[in-house]
Design brief:
single chain, alpha/beta, TIM Barrel, 8-stranded mixed sheet, 14 helices, 10 strands, globular, binds iron/sulfur cluster, S-adenosyl-L-methionine, metal-binding, iron, iron-sulfur, ArsS-like_C
């Protein structure tokens, strides 16, 4: 097997190590690139249908054997359900538009999601909420986390980044890498570097097979091209002002592997095979929702996967789940406990709906809304936007 590292046919092929039979089998059986549920008008595009599909799975595992996340939380020392920790992160999902249609996508993003994009009014409402949080005596906010879709496609993206940087906040761009190879966005690695933006890039696997299977043919070549551009801009060299994070998720129906050992493996493989470096790896579980849920159902794997999640339920992973220290804002300005609850349209249990009315005291007094998809966050070493939680 060989690989043209430039992606444009100009380089000599580089030999890759022989793939393990296990990886090949996982990938051949794993999720493949698809189209959006929304575009296909499938019933599973509806959040209620997704939640009902999860509730219908017979589950007798976990601490209580009931398949109730709330009951399992209670049995694990959280009798009133999940309660907030100090709010440290504002995560803004600026839209569902994406240049890719990955099979595991929990947002159901794609090129056809053109209407769900945050407008300038909602962007300014986010900034207004951030200003109120920063002025609050109990403020613990330090980070604004921008996600999508491909967040760079939002026309107000650079404005929002600049405004957050001007407020002294750490900014994370959740980037799919391939967008950085599109002519209009090729300036971004340098642009990010000038502002100290952390770039958290999704890449299913450090090998071509696993990545292209899930994200589409040619994705791996473009991803490497983008990684080189980020390295050239100073990313991935242990500079705290130019942090390059890679985010991986399993290419199949199994749980994320050990983050620390995977990071060592990924760093060695990408350096050896392509001369590419990065700073840290986050290993996330796939959430049983949206397009990944569809794949699990199609493959007859839903019950097995849910049993895996419950069988690996880890009370030690609860404390660090992202809903506890994050507010998630949707493209239309509505607020949620996390990006997963956002996609399932589970509004946060607060006396306001829109970020324009965000009130930190009310936010901190809420109970987090949970359901069976939450088992994806508490399995194994735990899984959040910041990686393993235990
Ligand atoms: S790149 Fe990210 S947002 Fe876009 S389809 Fe893939 S998983 Fe979804
Ligand atoms: S899915 Fe959201 S609400 Fe549920 S545990 Fe994970 S972060 Fe919290």
């Amino acid at each position: 097997m060989s690989f043209d590292a430039t992606g444009d046919g100009s380089a000599q092929p580089i030999s890759l190590p022989v793939l393990s039979a296990e990886l090949v089998a996982d990938v051949q059986d794993g999720p493949k690139r698809t189209t959006s549920l929304y575009g296909r008008r499938t019933p599973l595009a509806e959040p209620d249908v997704q939640l009902a599909a999860l509730d219908a799975v017979p589950l007798a595992l976990g601490p209580t054997g009931t398949g109730s996340f709330h009951a399992d939380l209670a049995a694990s020392g959280w009798p009133g359900g999940l309660r907030p920790a100090p709010l440290e992160i504002v995560q803004v999902n600026v839209g569902k538009l994406c240049n890719m249609t990955c099979r595991h996508c929990h947002v159901d993003s794609g090129p056809d999601r053109t209407t769900e994009n945050m407008d300038r009014e909602a962007v300014d409402a986010c900034l207004g909420a951030i200003d109120r949080i920063l002025a609050h005596p109990d403020c613990a906010l330090h980070t604004v986390d921008l996600t999508g879709g491909a967040p760079e496609l939002n026309p107000h993206f650079e404005y929002l980044v600049d405004e957050c940087v001007a407020r002294g906040l750490h900014v994370i761009d959740r980037c799919n890498l391939t967008i950085l190879t599109v002519r209009r966005y090729r300036h971004l690695p340098e642009w990010f570097a000038e502002r100290g933006v952390e770039v958290a890039c999704s890449l299913p696997h450090y090998r071509e097979l696993g990545t292209d299977a899930q994200r589409g043919e040619g994705t791996y070549a473009k991803s490497l091209k983008a990684l080189r551009a980020l390295n050239d801009a100073g990313y991935g060299q242990s500079d705290p002002e130019r942090v390059l994070t890679l985010v991986t998720n399993p290419v199949g129906s199994f749980l994320a592997g050990n983050q620390a050992s995977l990071e060592d493996e990924w760093k060695a493989a990408l350096a050896r095979n392509h001369g590419v470096s990065f700073d840290r790896l986050l290993a996330l579980n796939n959430m049983p929702m949206s397009r990944y849920l569809e794949w699990l159902i199609e493959k007859g794997q839903l019950e097995t996967y849910m049993e895996r999640l419950l069988g690996a339920f880890n009370p030690g992973a609860i404390d660090g789940v992202m809903c506890r220290n994050t507010v998630s804002v949707g493209w239309d300005g509505r607020v949620y406990d996390c990006d997963f609850n956002q996609q399932l349209e589970m509004d946060a249990a607060v006396p306001f709906e829109h970020v324009a009315d965000f009130d930190l005291d009310a936010w901190q007094a809420r109970a987090v809304r949970t359901a069976r998809h939450c088992y994806g966050c508490t399995a194994g070493a735990g899984s959040s936007c910041g990686g393993a939680t235990a």
